[in-house]
Amino acid sequence: MMPEALIEKSEKPRVVILGGGFAGLELAKALRRAPVQVVLIDRQNFHTFQPLLYQVATAGIEPSSILYPFRKIFDDQPNFYFRMAEAQSVDTDKQILETSIGYIEYDYLVIATGATTNFYGNAEIQKKAIAMKAVEDALALRNTILTNFEKALQIKDEIQLNSLMDFVIVGGGPTGVELAGALSELRKHVFPKDYPELNFVNMDIHLIQSGPQLLKGMSDQAASEAKEILEQAGVKLWLNCRVKSYDGFKVQLDTGESLCTRTLIWAAGVTGTFLDGLDRSMGTTGNRLKVDPYGRVQGYENVFAIGDIAAMSTEEHPEGYAMMAQPAIQQGKWLGKNFRRLLRNEDLQPFRYNDQGSMATIGRNKAVADLKVFGKTYKTQGFRAWFIWMFVHLMSLIGFRNRLVVFINWMWAYFTYDTGIRLIIGKKKENVPVEEVTEKTVV
Q1: β-strands 96-99, 67-69: how paired?
Q2: Secondary structure (3-state) at 124
Q3: Between the CA of residue 393 and those of 134, 139, 189, 360, 401, what are the distances in Å?
């Protein structure tokens, strides 16, 4: 058997939280004064504010502005322990979690591993597309975009040039819509200044959505407004359309048409990651864990799941709550309170989701928001929605420094029509080399 991870022993019950996303983070905070030992396990040593990853990818803000070290967040929480490790399996009978640094005993295990990109079993697309789930993905996309334009300066062939300057985004949810809007702003205000030798009339932005409308889950009004804004910005929308294949150069659609690009951005869906050792029958089709109204994974007494990985079925949400930040944050806080009740031998309280609405920004002074206040829905678009979106996301960042830096970057970009972080540092996506491209069908 693997050695035990070195964590201080305690007479208090040990709560092991697997995953430091929104749900895991809020749970650890909620257990600050609880009579437990809190052990947080994550493969990274920092929390990522994922809603702003697209701005890192489009050179709007620095990556460090949306990251915050776990040890800094909890430096004054005496019952907190962090270990950077990757979970491998769990033995629920022995109450042992096996990780890359050794096994960890637990009294209560909370799985808050979030979700990963769902490529729907297409290995070719998974290998050659760029996802948007981690800061490494965002940096890879930024580097790829800028490198493509540097290469384009040396290209005369029209087909090769188009493949470098065109971008295809798959997925018409908030991430896809916000990426398309950000790229259109860069095409209009920034790239022509950086690369005056290139004709950005040739830069096409395609947004592919499998359903009939954008921003599924938001109101029809918000979806219609987003569609109109993107079309006015010159984004080419492909609704009721799916990607069949991508070879690093040509995107083949199920309509029989094809698009030419070296940059396919995949924002089409997410799926959970099943932890070995758990009963597979407790999983859903999206690899989420079935949990009861108290967060317990079905079939287990001391294993819980919260956030994106948890499929808490209700009458309104038969497949579980939406895999977004707000349900995860609320579940983390709620489970922290329930652990206190559990330790006092009190009845647990079922989860009640307070839907505060959703929003998406599509460019300068342009956003859509469906807000819910005291049970009433308020729909707004344009500058007001953009200002609300900006304020909510700014205040949701961890750390005063991060808020200040992001605010300065946003104000600089707003008044100068410029983003100052167009740096090529680190990895980029290399698909088909330019010199290997021959004539292909291009739409």
Answers
A1: unpaired
A2: helix
A3: 17, 20, 24, 11, 14
Is the distance from CB of 369 to CB of 380 less than 8 angstroms? Answer: yes
Tens digit of pLDDT for each residue in 308-322?
A: 999 998 888 888 898
- What pLDDT digit, counting tens, does each position of 274-311 carry? 899 999 888 887 889 999 999 999 999 999 999 999 99
- What are the residue ranges of helices labelled H in 264-351? 325-343
Domains in the chain with CATH codes: 14-43+85-115+272-343 (3.50.50.60), 123-269+357-436 (3.50.50.100)
Distance (Å, rounded) from C-alpha 258 to C-alpha 89?
42
Helix (H, G, I), strand (E, B) or coil at 358: strand
Q: Tell me the one-letter amino acid at 396.
A: S
Residue 147, φ and ψ in degrees, nearest 5: -65, -40
23 closest CA partner among 416, 431, 333: 333
CA contacts within 13 A on the Cβ side of 166? 23
- Map tokens 């004539």 to a residue: 439
Strand partners, 263: 167
Helix (H, G, I), strand (E, B) or coil at 288: coil
Q: Which of 51, 85, 86 is nearest to 66 (CA)?
A: 51
Instruction: List the structure tokens of 388.
Output: 């609300």
Q: At CB < 8 A and 24+ separation, what contacts does 61-64 make?
A: 61/405, 61/406, 61/409, 61/410, 61/421, 62/405, 62/409, 62/421, 63/135, 63/138, 63/139, 64/402, 64/405
What's the CA gap between 362 and 58, in Å, rounded? 13
Residues in the chain: 443
Q: Which residue has the tokens 């040039």?
A: 161
In this prediction the pTM is 0.92
